[in-house]
Amino acid sequence: METITCPLCHRGNQDAVITEHGYTGCLCPECQVIYLSPRPTPEETLASYRQDHACVPASMYIAKTCYQTLHNRLTLRLLRRYCPAGALLEIGAGGGFFLEEARAAAFSVAAIEVNPTQAAAMRAKAIPCEEQALSDASFGGQHFEAIYHCDVLSHFSDPLETFRRIHTRLQPGGYHLFETSNFGGVAPAGLRLVNTFQLPDHLFFFSPHSLRLLLEQSGFALVALYRYAETWHLRFAAALRAARRLLAPAGPHRDTAIPAALHLDDPLHRAYFHLLYFARYDLGRLTAREQQPQTLIVVARKV
Ligand SMILES: [Zn+2]
Asked: pTM of the prediction?
C-alpha cells in the first residue's frame, strides 16, 4: 500500500468523501478530483488485472452484448466527426468490440490490454495487441491519428504521466478521445446514488474542471465535452436490483440487476441492455445537470 496526494496540485490530507471495501477516496476541493489514499501500489494494481482479481472479471468484457454494440457505434460516430480514418489505438480494449467496429469503418487498429484473457480474445480477431502499459517501444514506436480509452482513466496509477505518454504517441494534431465519470465534481447527494465505486480498482474520479487541468498539464486542448446524466440508469438498475432481492433473497448474484445465468441473446437480457443504453445515453444526453452523476465523453487534440 502507498499514500498519495492530489495528482494535479499535490496537496495532501484532504477530506474523505467515499469509503468502500475498507478504502477511502479523498477530495481535493481546488482541483475537484477524488483520489484513493492509501491505495495498492502500481505493481499490485497491475498484478490484479493480470491475474483477473479486478472487481469486474475478464469474462464480462469478452461477452458481447447489444449494449456494447450501441455504445461502440455512438463512440465511433463521435470519433469520426473529428478523425474520419487513420491509425487508432485503444488502451484497455477489453474484448476488442470497439476496434472491430472501427476496423470495419477503415481505421487501422491496435490495442493495449494487460489482462491475458482479453488480450487473447483480441488476437483471435487478428487485432494487434500488447499486454503492457503504453511505452515508447509499443507497436515499434508507431504514432497514431487517434488514441481512445473508455472507463480506463480511473485505473491509471499516474494519470498525468499516462496522458503525457499518450501525447507523445499521437501524430501532430492527433485526437485523444475518452470516456469517464464526473464523480470528482458531484455533490454528496449525487454520490449516494452510485451503487459501487469499484474500489480499489478505481484510483481516481475526475470532473469537467479537473479534466481540463489534466489535459492542459499534458499538452492537450479540449475540443468537445459530451455529457450524459447517470441518474436515470442508476435508478433503473437500483429498482431492478431491489426487485431481484425481493424475488430471490438468497443466492450468489442477488445484488446484480439481472440473473447472471441468463443467456446474452435472451429477449429479456436484450430488452434490459436496450433500456439501460436508452436511459444512459439518449435520456441522459437530454438531462445532464451540474453536480449530478454523469458520463463524460471527452475529445481533446494534441497541441
Ligand atoms: Zn488538487
From this structure: 0.92
